Amino acid sequence: MTGNIVIISIVSMGAIGAVLSFFLAYADKKLKVQEDPRIEALLNILPNTNCGGCGMAGCRVFAEALIQGNASVAGCVAGGQAVADNIAKYLGVESAQTNRIVAVVLCRGGDKETVKSAVYKGEATCVAANLTGGEKACTYSCIGYGDCVEACKFDAMTMNDNGLPVVFYDACVGCGACARACPRNIIEMHPIEHKLFNYCRNKDKGAIARKVCSVSCIACSLCVKDCTVEGGIEMIDNLAVVSYDKCPQDDQPTKRCPTECIRFGEEEKMTKDAYYASLPKKAV
Amino acid sequence: MEVILIFISASIVNNFVLSYFLGICPFVGVSNKTESALNMGLATTFVMTLTAAITWPVWTYVLVNFNIPFLQYVAFIIVIAALVQFVEMFIRKSSPHLYRALGIYLPLITTNCAVLGLALFMVLREYNYIESIFFGFGTGVGFTLAILMMSGIREELEFADVPEVFKGISITLIVAGMMALAFMGFAGLIRG
Fold first, then answer.
1. Taking the domain A101-274, which CATH number applies?
2. Is the dihedral of CA A266, A270, A274, A279 positive or negative?
3. Which of A52, A185, A207, B1 is 20 to 30 A from B91 in CA distance terms?
């Protein structure tokens, strides 16, 4: 009797499965969608990281846009010049110059430089901590839980011992995932030619900004005066803002900055190997 | 008359989403925009009606007939999965735009507990074939109604001054709770 039930179960389930699979196989034949074979070929060229750096929902959407002519062949930031050339070759169009874009962390207020005004014991992510204001007294600063490092798919960021994110410029492809992950928007995407940055986002008045952090922009305007081109640097909302189309990328404006928040970024640009070589050697 | 009662009961009074809390995942996930919410509701209604129409004979002529009712979960899941596959192919063919808008939520109808719940309730309440189909259709209409109302409210919420900590999913769940409260007002309309 028990054996009977087993056999009946197997046969009836098998029959139901078989009927449904025949039905689906028939439907699949009838409802087949013809897909452009060029999409598949372009996907083989693209890096398939789905990083979103091109501004589209993924590599497949970008490939479709390429075929419809709605995207530039140089649009794939993760692939760089090599991928742009290959796409252009495949589509039979002229290749375009890619702009190398990298992430810049515009805050140097790590654990050593900033004043703490609270103790935070919640969920250790920047998004959560930002709801309560985080630990640091500066409400514009890096919160330091590394949401940007989590967001990076290219292993191009890490948190240093001072609680600040470091971008490895040899590994960064410029997809902008870290900039979108940062709840305080202190990470910006810039062409690699940009070298002069104000590494502070604090919009408070100088006296207040000075109290919360030793490397904050105190709106003293010395860099505005020192810039060799008129209007190359402007004071907006108590912050020195560099106009990249006007200001020459030299270190002239950084020389008299009392808090060293405006810097000529060459020394900040770190490669992965250089960073790990600079760490103190652990005892084996 | 009985059939109309079952339809109204399933769609409004005992709304699956708002009084049994089944199918909350697509209810929260696809209620951003009215258009995709309506399409999601229609796809789910289609799957639900077909599910009722097919699981009833499977239950009566296979599971009960051969005295193997303990296989109901397996049998129902197979039927639902096959139907969702079919709907997915159909939508992909007829409207690629809608296919992309629904995204991951379309295959997720397979695991939408409202669809399985509908098949199980149908068995539990011993409906006949016509009643089952109306029950399935009514449940789908109820789901569409709930998700459509939710998307309308959420579109308005975009412009509301929601406190920072309530933004996103939390305000959605609070609104869902309020809608459920409002739907409790229908409770006296039909018994059971």
1. 3.30.70.20
2. positive
3. A52
The beta-carbon neighbor of B82 closest among A9, A12, A23 is A23
CB atoms A33 and B93 under 8 Å: yes
Out of B67, B86, B92, whose CB is closest to A33? B92
> Does residue B190 or residue B132 have the better pLDDT?
B132
At A149, which helix (H) or strand (E)?
A: helix A147-151
**Chain B residue at shortest CA distance from A1:** B67
CATH of domain A37-91: 1.10.15.40
What integer best gives the mean pLDDT of chain B? Answer: 87
Highest-pLDDT range among A46-55, A188-197, B64-73, B137-146: B137-146
Distance CA A127, CA A184 (A): 9
The pLDDT of residue A99 is: 79
CA distance A8 to chain B (A): 7
Q: Round to whole Å and give the CA distance between A188 and B84.
A: 43
Find which of B93, B97, B100 to mutate to test the A interface (most A CBs within 10 Å of its CB).
Answer: B93
**Domain boundaries of chain A, sorted by first residue:** 37-91, 101-274
Q: Residue A142: which pLDDT band, with cuts at 50, 70 and 90?
A: very high
Query: Given an 8 Å threshold on Cβ–Cβ distance, is B68 in contact with A8?
Result: yes
Q: Of the candidates A9, A27, A33, which has its C-beta nearest B71's C-beta?
A: A9
Question: So what's the ipTM on this one?
Answer: 0.74
**Can you say how many angstroms the Cα of residue B64 is from the centroid of all Cα atoms in its chain?**
26
